[in-house]
Amino acid sequence: MPAISRIYTLRQAAKMLGETEEAVSEAAIGMFAEDGAISIIDENFTDDDWPLASAFTDEGLENLQYILDETRPYRS
């Protein structure tokens, strides 16, 4: 397994995937560390900081894209 060299906040992941933060958050509910999902803990985070408290590795972005593609209604 390659070393993790960067992570993306939920907000950045949504932007990169062309999705809303809410859609990415919903897609990530069942993801774990082995899927590329990371939780960032900071006692100064507020409820408004939830997009900053969830992050994803490159592999996590790939998994998110797969989940989003599988749960999205068929588009022609």
SS elements, strand count: 3
Mean pLDDT: 88
Count of distinct structural domains: 1
How large is the share of residues in beta strands? 5-15%
Provide tags for this entry:
single chain; three-stranded antiparallel β-sheet; 76 residues; mainly alpha; 11% strand; 3 strands
Could you characterize what this model shows?
The structure is a single chain. The protein is about 45% helix and about 10% strand. Strands 1-3-2 form a three-stranded antiparallel sheet. It contains four helices and three strands, in the order βααβαβα. The chain is mainly α and about 80 residues long. The chain has helices at about 10-15, 20-25, 50-55, 60-70; strands at about 10, 35-40, 55. The longest helix has 14 residues, at about 60-70. The N and C termini lie far apart (about 35 Å). It has one domain. Helix 1 crosses helix 2. The chain is globular, with a radius of gyration of 13 Å.
Outline of the structure:
This protein has 76 residues and is mainly alpha-helical.
How are the elements arranged and paired?
Elements: E1 8-9, H1 10-17, H2 21-27, E2 37-39, H3 50-53, E3 54-56, H4 58-71
Helix pairs in contact: 1-2
